[in-house]
C-alpha cells in the first residue's frame, strides 16, 4: 500500500541523514584542506590530478579523525559538557551523536570506512612517490585515526603536536607527491601552515579546559593552567611571526616575504589581544581562522610571483 507523500518523506529523511554525516565529518571546517592549493602553488601549479586525488583522501582521513573523536567525546561525556545548554556559544548541531541524529555504531562505521578509503587514496599515490613521502603519509594516517580513538594521542599530551604536525605534513606530502623533494621555501610555508590550525585549537582548548580535565584529556590548557596556557599561546604567536620575519634571512623566501604576510600577522596580533588580553577564547578562535586563511592566500600569491 502506497503511503501519500511517502517518497517525499523518504527523500527528506535521506537528506537529513546525509546532513548529519556531513556535520559528523565537520565538512564546514575546511582549513586543513587549504594545504592542497598551497601545495599546488609550491609545485608551480602542476600536478593537478595527483593533488585532487590527494585532496579526496585528505577529506576522508580528516572525516575519519573527527568522527572517531566525536565517538570518544560522546562516550566520555566531554562533548556533552562542552556543547551542553550551559555553553550557548557552541553549536550543538555540530554533534549529531548528542542530538540523536546518529548513533554510536553509525558513527564508528562511517569513521572507519572513511579511514580505509582515505588510506587507499593516500598510500596508493605514495607508492610512486619518494620513500619519505610514503612514510609521512602513513604516519599522518595512523596519527589521525588515533587522534582521540585507540591510542588517544590527543588525550596523552600530544594534541598540540598533532594539530601543527598534521597541517605541516599535508603540505610537505602534497609537494612530495608532485615534485619529489621540498624546497626551503616549501618547508617554511609548511611550518606557517601547520601553526595555523594549532593557533585555532589552543583557543578552543582554553574554552574547553574544564570539560577536558574532567575526562583526563591532557591538553596544555589543562596541564599548564590559565597563566601557563596564555604564555604558551603567546609563545606560539611569536614563533609564527618569527618564522615569517626571518624566512628571507634564512634564504628560504624573497626579501619581501614578511611584507606579503603582514595582513595575516596583523590578524594574528589581533587574535592574541582578544584571546589572551581580553580572555575571549571563542572570538579569538574566529580571528585564528581568519589569520590562517589570509596567510594561505598570501603564501599562494608569494608562490605565484617567485616560482
UniProtKB/TrEMBL annotation:
<protein>
    <submittedName>
        <fullName>1,4-dihydroxy-2-naphthoate prenyltransferase</fullName>
    </submittedName>
</protein>
<feature type="transmembrane region" description="Helical">
    <location>
        <begin position="184"/>
        <end position="206"/>
    </location>
</feature>
<keyword id="KW-0472">Membrane</keyword>
<keyword id="KW-0808">Transferase</keyword>
<feature type="transmembrane region" description="Helical">
    <location>
        <begin position="38"/>
        <end position="68"/>
    </location>
</feature>
<feature type="transmembrane region" description="Helical">
    <location>
        <begin position="161"/>
        <end position="178"/>
    </location>
</feature>
<dbReference type="GO" id="GO:0016765">
    <property type="term" value="F:transferase activity, transferring alkyl or aryl (other than methyl) groups"/>
</dbReference>
<dbReference type="Pfam" id="PF01040">
    <property type="entry name" value="UbiA"/>
</dbReference>
<dbReference type="InterPro" id="IPR044878">
    <property type="entry name" value="UbiA_sf"/>
</dbReference>
<keyword id="KW-0812">Transmembrane</keyword>
<keyword id="KW-1133">Transmembrane helix</keyword>
<dbReference type="InterPro" id="IPR000537">
    <property type="entry name" value="UbiA_prenyltransferase"/>
</dbReference>
<dbReference type="GO" id="GO:0016020">
    <property type="term" value="C:membrane"/>
</dbReference>
